[in-house]
Fold these 4 entries.
Entry 1:
Amino acid sequence: MSRFMSSRFDGLEAYVPGEQPQDMQYVKLNTNESPFPPSPAVLEAVNREETGRLNLYPDPEGKALRGRLAETYGVRPENVFLANGSDELLFFAFMAFCDQSRPAAFPNISYGFYPVYARLLGLPYTEIPLREGFVLNPKDYCGLGKTIFIANPNAPTGRAISVDSIEEIVRTNPDHVVLIDEAYIDFGGQSCLPLIKKYDNLLVCQTFSKFRSLAGGRLGFALASPGLIADLEKIKYSTNSYNINRLTMAAAIATLDSSEYYVENSRKIQANRAYTTEKLAELGFETLPSVTNFIFTRCPAVDGGTLYRELKARGVLVRHWDKAEISDWCRVTIGTREQMDIFLDRVREILKEVG
Ligand code: PMP
C-alpha cells in the first residue's frame, strides 16, 4: 500500500480470484467456467459491424437485452437489471440495501466476495454457520431482520435448499431484502424466480458466466420487483452508467437466441458430474451432492492442499481454500468428459504416489 491510500482500507483483505493462467497449459477446472465455447450465433453477433461501432457508447439502459431477458423469464423489463458480471451486481446490492441499521447476513461458508464487499463498504455483517455436512438450515434465517445473501445452490459446496425454504425466509423478513444468488441454477437446480411476483423484497441474481459460456463477456442480471430494480439503477447511475459494453450486449442477445445449445451443454455437464462423482467414490473420495457445474470432494488419503498442489504439478487446476472448516476439500469444476478423464487419471497417479 502506498502512503496515499486512505487508511480506511488498512484492514481490508481483497478477494483472491481463482488462478487464470493465460498460456492454456492446464486442464482448467478451478473457476467454474463452461468448457464449451459460446454458440455459433454469438460468434456471428460479435462481428466487424458491431466492433466498428465501439467508438459509440452503448445503450445505458440496455433496452434490447433487458427486453429479451424479460421475454425469456416471463417478466417485464422493469423487473430486470444488468450488471458487469454478477460480482458488480452483488456490490451494488450491498451498497443499496445494507447500512448500520440493516446489517448483512450470509452463511460462513459461501461465496468469498460477500464478506469482502461488506468490509469494503464498512458494513456490519454476520456469518451464520452452516450445519453438519454444510447444510443450510432455513430456520437460521427466518425473521432475522437483516439483509440476507444466500447463494443457491451454494458455492463452494454445491448444495441447494428448496424453493419452499427460500419462500419461508423471504416471507419472514418482509422489511429486508433477501438476495438469492443463482449463479449455478441451470445445472439441475430449481429457481425461486416465480416468487418475485409475490414478494417485493426478493432479489434473484443470475449470471451469463457459467451455463451461458460467457465468463469473459462479464454479464450478470437481477430479477426483482420494480422498486428494487430502481434502487439498483440509482446506484448504477451513480457509479458507472455504461456498465455493459456493446459486444457483450450483442453476444448476450445471441446467447438467449440459442437456448437449445446451452441446455444440451448443461445436460452433458450433469452427466459428467455423475460420472466423475462415481469414479471418485471408487477411489475412496467423499463428494457432496451437487446441482451445479462443480463438485466439492475430499479424500481421506490426501488432504485438500496436497491434492490441489499435486494436481497442479500434473497440469490440472482445481480450487482449494486454506479456511479451516473446508481445508480437507477441493472444488472441482465439471468440464468435458475428456477433461474429467485426465483429472481422474492424475488423481489415480497421486493416490499411488502420495496416498
Ligand atoms: N456468485 C457466485 C456464487 C459465484 O460463484 C460467482 C462466480 N465466481 C459469482 C457470483 C460471480 O460471477 P460473475 O461475476 O462472473 O457473474
Note: The domain at 40-257 is CATH 3.40.640.10 (Aspartate Aminotransferase; domain 2).
Entry 2:
Amino acid sequence: MTMRTTIKPLLGVLLAVCAGMGLAQTKLRAWNIHPDGYPVTEAMKSFAEQVGKATQGRYQIEVFSNATLGDQPKAVQMLKSGEIDLAEFSSGPLSDAVPGIKVLNLPFLFTDSAHMFRHLDGKLGDRFAANLKAAGFVVLGWYDGGGRSFYCTNKPINSLRDLAGSKIRVQQSEVYIEMVKLLDATPVALPFKEVLDALQQGKVDCAENNLPSYESTGHYKVARNVYVTNHVISPEALVVSTKLWDKLGKEDKAAFSEAGAKSALLMRELWNKRVALALDVTTKQGSQFVKVRDVSPMVRRMGPLYGKYMADPTTREELLTIIAN
Ligand code: GTR
C-alpha cells in the first residue's frame, strides 16, 4: 500500500478525532485594504487573536492586508459569495451594495467622530447593522473612518472655485461621485491602490481622504496642498459574512461579537493617535493645510444630494435624527 492511498483516510480519521475533542480548526480569510501598523490592520489582528483564544484555536483568522485579495468593490462581492469570510470596509463602497446604509456617506452629516459613534453605538447603528445583515454582512464593530478632505498636486486650494474643473479621484462609490460633480469638478473613481500613480502621472489633480490614509499611502509626497473640509465623516465596519455567521454556534457567535466590539474600541483609540502622527509627519514633509473658513457654500452645493434623501421617508428620518442629536 502506498502513502497516497493511506493518507486520505488517515487524514479523515484524524480530523474526526480532533473534532470529537473539540479541536477541529477552521481557517478563515479576512480582507483588509491597509498596510501593517495602520489602526485598521492592528485592530483586525487583535480581533483574530482574541477569536483564536476564545475558541481554543478552533477558528484561525488570517488577515490579508494591502488589498492583496482585490479592491474594495470586488471584496464586497467576495464576501457575499463566501470566497472570503471577514472584511473591514469603508461605508463608501459598501453602501453601493447596501443602499440601506447610504445615508452614512452624506457630506457634512456628522460633526465629528464622537457624534457619529453616538448614533452608531445606539439605535440607528442597530438599524444600519440590520440592513447590512439582510444583505449578507454581519457587523462586528464600527471603526472610525475619520474626516475626509481634499488634496491637490499643483496648486493651493483656498476656495471651492479652486477645486472647480479639477479631476478628483473618488472612491468607487456613487455618493462620492455625485458629491464631486456638484462641486463642478470631474470625479474619477479609482481603486485605492491606484491613486498614488494617478496623482503622480497627472491622471488626476486631486484626491480626498482622511489624514492617516493621506500619510500611509504617500499621497502627501505628491499632493501637498490640502484643503481641510472634513466634508465626509463616515464609519467603516468590521463584518463577517452571513454565510459563516449562520454556521456558528451560540458560543462562537458570542466570541466573535465580543472580539469585534473590543477591536472597535482599540481601533478608535489607535485612530486618534494616528491622526496626530499623520498630521505631524505630513506637516514636517511640507504639506500645506488650508482650513476651509466657512463650509456653508459647500453645504449649499450639496442640495440636490440631500434632496434625494429627504424624498425618501426612511432616509429623511435618519438624516433628521442624526442632525438633530
Ligand atoms: C480609506 C479607507 C479605505 C478606502 C480608502 C479609499 O480612508 O479606510 O477603506 O476606502 O479610504 O479612499 O479608497
Note: Residues 250-284 form the longest helix (35 residues).
Entry 3:
Amino acid sequence: MNETTLPQSLIEKLRFANRVVVLTGAGISAESRIPTFRDALTGLWAKYKPEELATPEAFISNPKLVWDWYQWRCSLVSHASPNPGHNALVQMEKHVPHFTLVTQNVDSLHARAGNNHVLELHGNISRTRCFQENTIVTSWKEDGQSPPRCPSCGGMLRPDVVWFGESLPQDVLEQAAKASAACDVFFSIGTSAVVFPAASLVYEAMRNRAVTVEINPTPTAQAGELSYALQGPAGEILPALIEETWG
Ligand code: BV8
C-alpha cells in the first residue's frame, strides 16, 4: 500500500523489532548530491547506459572512458557528506538489538555517517585493484596514463567495484541473505530494485514473514508486494520514522 504519512502499525512493529535489515541503493545518497546510478550519466557519459559502462567488457574496450567515469564519481563522493537519511540509519542501529545494513552503494557514506559493519554488496569506489591480479593496490605512479598501471605487474588498475556479469563477494552476500531470511522488518530504501541478486533479498525476508517496507519517491515494481511503500525522499521519511518510533 502506498503511504505518504507514517502508518502507526509500522511504528509499533519497528519499535518492538528485534532484527532489522536495511538495503540501500543510490537514492539514499541523492540528497548528498551524488547522482543516482541511473542518473550518473551526464556530460561525457550521457550517451551511455550505466549497464554499458559498469562492465568488464566496457573497461576492456575503452579503459580510459570507464576509468575517467569512476574518477569523476570519486570526486563527487569525496566532496559529499552523509545526509539526514544516512544519519537516521545510524540512530536506527542504536535502537535495534540486531541491525544489519546492506548497501549497493559504493560511496562509503554509511560508514562516514557512523554505521558499523556495513555490508557492501557492490564494492567501494574508494578502493582500487589490479585488473590482472585482482589485488588491492594502494599506491601507483601517476604518469598521466588513464587508467594507471599496477606497480607489480604493469596491468591496468580498476575500481574495486562489482561490475555487471561479475560475482558479488560471496561472504558479504551470504551474510546479507542470512540476515534477510531471519529479520522481523526489512527496509528497501532508495533503490530501483532492478539489480540482482540485491533485489532478491526482500523475498528472503518475505519468506520469513517479515514486515517489508519500501522508501522511495517513486514506487518500484516491488512496491505492490510489500507491507508498506512510503512515498518520499529518504532524507525526510527516515528522520520522521526514527522520531515517531523512538522519540
Ligand atoms: C551477479 C557497480 C553472478 C558499481 C553495479 C539474477 C541473479 C543474478 C544476476 C542477475 C539476475 N538477473 C540479471 C542478472 C545480471 C545482473 C543484473 O542484475 N542485471 C540487471 C540490469 C537486470 N546482475 C549482475 O551482473 C550481478 N552479478 O549476479 O554475478 C553472475 C555472473 C555472471 C553472469 C550472471 C550472473 C552484479 C550486479 C552489480 C552490478 N554493479 N554497480 C557502480 O558503478 O556503482 S549495480 C548498480 O546498480 C549500482 O551499484 C547501484 O547501486 C545498483 C542498483 O541501482 P540503485 O542503487 O537502485 O540506483 P538507481 O539509480 O537504479 O535507482 C535509484 C532509486 O532511488 C530510484 O528508484 C529513485 O526513485 C530513488 N531515489 C531518488 N532519490 C531518492 C530516492 N530514494 C529515496 N530518497 C531519495 N531522495
Note: The chain has a mean pLDDT of 94.
Entry 4:
Amino acid sequence: MKSRIKSVKAREILSSGSDPSLEVKVSLESGANGFFSVPYGASAGSHEAFVLLDGDKNRFFGKGMLKAVENINKKIAPKLKGMSAFNQKEIDKKMIELDGTENKRNLGANAILGVSVAVACAAAQEKKMQLYDYIRGAFNLKIKKYVLPNPMMVAIEGGKHADKSTDFQEYLVSPIGKGTVKENVRCGIEVYLSLKKLLKEKGLSANVGNEGAFAPSGLANNELPIALILEAIEKAGYKAGQEVGISLDIAASEIFSDGKYRLKKEGKALSSLEMIGLFEEWAEKYPIIMLEDALHEDDWENWQKLNAAIGKKVAIVADDLTTTNPKRLAKAIETKSGSATIIKLNQIGTLSETLETCLLARKNGWITIISHRGGGETNDTAMVDLAVAVNSAFIKVGPSRGERVCKYNRLMEIEETLGKKAETAGKEFRKIN
Ligand code: PGA
Ligand code: ZN
C-alpha cells in the first residue's frame, strides 16, 4: 500500500531564538515525504504539554533536543512503520498511548507533534492535495467555504519577549477592513512601518524583539504604545477601529507573583480587580478588539468577571488559560471565561487534539486565533494551513523576520490559489460560520 509509512526520521535544527528545535521527515512507500519543524514558546503557560529538553549543560546550555530526536527515531518510528499515513487520528492515538502521560512527559510533546504534523504533510503530498484541504478531509470537518483569517501583527512587544520594554507582552495591529488577505497584510505592514518612522522621530529605538515587533526601552508606561500605534495607523492613512483594530496580549502569568500583577515600568502592583478596572478603562478609550491573557492562567474567577465586564465590547482571549487543551477550553466555555482562544499546535502536541480544540471552540461560538510562538519559531508554515482548514478568524504572527513573514507569504499564496472561492473573516469575525 502506497500510503504506508516507510520511515520516520528526526534531526535537531535551530529555531528562531537560536535554541535547538527539531525537524521530522516522514516518508511513505510511494516516495511521498512530509516535513514539520516544531516551534516552542518563550513565555509558555504552565499547563502546556511537556517540551523534552536534554538537560545536558555541555550542549546548548541544556536546551539540546537530542533526546526527543532519539525518541522519534528509536521509539516512535518502529511503532508507526507500516501504518497508513491516512490514519491521522489512529497515529496520534498510538503516540499518546505510547507516551502514557497526561502532558506527554515521556516522549516529549515536541517529539510527538513533530511526527503528527509531518504525517499529515506526507499524506497530503501523497494525495496531491493542499494541506488545508487534506486536514478538512482527514478530520471530516464538513466545512465548505474558505473564510481566510485576519492578520494579527505584533507591533510593540515587551515582557519576556524583549529587554527593558513594556511589562505587557504584546500590542498588536489587527487589520479587519480590507476584504482580502493581501490588502489586510499590506495595511498591517504599512502601519508597522509607519510606527517605525514614528518611533525614530520620537527618539525611541526601532530595534525588534522575539516576534519582529519593536521593543523600545524608553517608553514611559504600559499605555503609551497604544497611543503610538493609533498615531501610526492615522499616519499610514487608515481608520482605527474601522479598518484596523488594536489587540493586546498582556501575558499576565508572567508578571504575576505573590497575589499581584507587578508593573515594574510604573512601580505598581495591581490586584486582579484593579487589572479588570484598568482594562475597562482602556476598552472605553481605545478601539481594542481583542484582549489576551489579561489575568493569570489559574485566575478563573476573575476571568469570568472580566468577561462579564467588557466581553461584549472586546473579545476576551485565552492563551495560557486554555493552552489548546480541549479540557481546559471546555472549562473556559462552561464558566464563560472568555470568547476566543489562541491555538498553538505545540501547546497540546498532536494535530488531532488541536483539531478537537478548534472544533470545540467553533461549536460553542468561540473565535480561534492560530498563533506563532515567541521564542522558538521555525520556518514551517503548517499553522497557516491549519488556520485555513478550520476557517479561523485570526492568525497571529509577527510582521517581520523570516520565520514570521513566511507565514503571511503562505497565506497570500493560498488566497491566490483559492481565487474567487476565498473570502476573509473581516469585520464580521465574531460570526462563526
Ligand atoms: P510565547 O508567547 O510563544 O513566547 O509563549 C506568545 C504568546 O503568549 O502569545
Ligand atoms: Zn499569549
Note: The chain has a mean pLDDT of 97.
